[in-house]
Design a protein that fits this description.
The complex is a heterodimer of chains A (about 210) and B (about 140). With about 210 residues, chain A is α+β, with helices and mostly antiparallel strands. Chain A contains five helices and twelve strands. Chain A is about 30% helix and about 35% strand. In chain A, helix 2 runs antiparallel to helix 5 and helix 4 runs antiparallel to helix 5. Chain B is about 45% helix and about 30% strand. Strand 2 of chain A pairs antiparallel with strand 3 of chain B, so a sheet runs across the interface.
């Protein structure tokens, strides 16, 4: 290779590297351009092992307010122990009065855990129907409010393993990190559903990084 | 010929310096108020940690002291968020405002659209992590 060709090759290489380096941030700019309204951009697929907790609050009628929160459980597990504020310390929440007016919550949970599946409380009145049960490893609470014009409905479905994990910490505290860890081992499930005349609230767990 | 070589060297240095300066992207803050006030700040993200080294230590210590309780949280959050694909973490939409917090292309984007004010913040997660780590070093008792 002649000296002239060598110099030209060196120059071409320099220009190519410089151009590649220079264009890299503009690729970032292109990604960074604000997209259209939410939901219109294609969501990236979360990795299969990621578990996401979703909270959605809607006003179906007035459509005045919508809240959507999507949190990866692993992210929450890592962040919670770093927060030391008020009653939340190292991923645990201090609860002042755990006895709940004389009721020993831990003893109650032990009793529920060791009992067979079944209904523990069933109340049917003109104001509301209430059902508290244990079924298939879940603690279920169903409330139907009959008082209003449009019936309110609350459904809570908590895995008993999660409740156990929450109470696995010391006395008078809830271990949120242990609870999240237990929750992440669960399959896709709807944890809380509240419907009343104004709002719809849903809390659920799945592997998607976007709300439905 | 000598002049051409000098120009090439100078131009090449500028290109490389520009490429390095912008390789982490841009930290961007846009604020538009209904009274006509506008604030638009675009800063090369790579320059932020460097600029922090130039800030007098007492100012950094003051800022670090104020933010100290939350610095480990910010650092952990930014570090973890980088592992996830682009996602929308919070969206609040009501009659008065529209708030979105999301990640896109390794950046944290916060958009607040109110009737009288619009604020858009874009910051590379790596820069946030660097800043939190830098402040942690100056924060007492962290």
């Amino acid at each position: 290779m002649t000296h002239r060709a060598l110099r030209f090759s060196g120059f071409a290489l320099f220009v190519a590297v410089a151009a590649a380096l220079l264009l890299t941030p503009f690729a970032g700019f292109a990604q960074n351009t604000p997209g259209p309204a939410s939901g219109s951009s294609a969501p990236a697929a979360a990795s299969k092992q990621d578990r996401w907790l979703h909270v959605r609050v809607d006003n179906p009628d007035s459509k005045e307010e919508t809240v959507r929160v999507n949190v990866p459980l692993e992210l929450a597990e890592k962040i919670l122990p770093t927060i030391n504020h008020s009653k939340l310390q190292s991923g645990r929440v201090k609860v002042d009065q755990f006895d709940c007016h004389g009721v020993d919550v831990r003893a109650l949970l032990d009793a529920v855990r060791s009992s067979k599946d079944g209904e523990f409380v069933t109340v049917q009145s003109k104001d509301a129907d209430v059902r508290v049960a244990k079924q298939g490893g879940y603690f279920l609470v169903h409330v139907v409010d009959k008082n209003r014009d449009k019936k309110g409905r609350v459904e809570v479905k908590i895995p008993i393993k999660v409740v156990d994990a929450l109470f696995s910490g010391g006395k008078d505290e809830l271990d949120l990190v242990a609870g999240l860890r237990a929750l992440s081992a669960q399959g896709d499930t709807e944890l809380v559903s509240v419907k009343d005349e104004e709002n719809t609230v849903r809390v659920w767990l799945d592997s998607k990084n976007v709300a439905d | 010929m000598l002049l051409a070589k000098l120009a090439l060297g100078f131009g090449g240095t500028l290109v490389l310096a520009g490429a390095y300066t912008f390789h982490e992207g841009v930290m961007r803050i846009d604020q538009d108020q209904v009274n006509g006030q506008h604030l638009h700040v675009w800063v090369p993200a790579a320059g932020v940690p460097l600029a922090m080294r130039a800030v007098p230590r007492r100012y950094l210590e003051h800022a670090a002291g104020q933010a100290a309780p939350w610095l480990p949280t910010v650092r952990a959050m930014t570090k973890e968020l980088r592992k996830y694909p682009d996602a929308e973490f919070v969206e609040v939409d009501d009659a008065a405002q529209h708030v979105r917090i999301r990640t896109q292309g390794g950046k944290l984007l916060i958009d607040v659209d109110k009737t009288d004010e619009k604020v858009h913040v874009t910051c590379p997660l790596a820069t946030l992590e660097d800043v939190a780590s830098e402040l942690e070093r100056d924060a007492p008792g962290v």
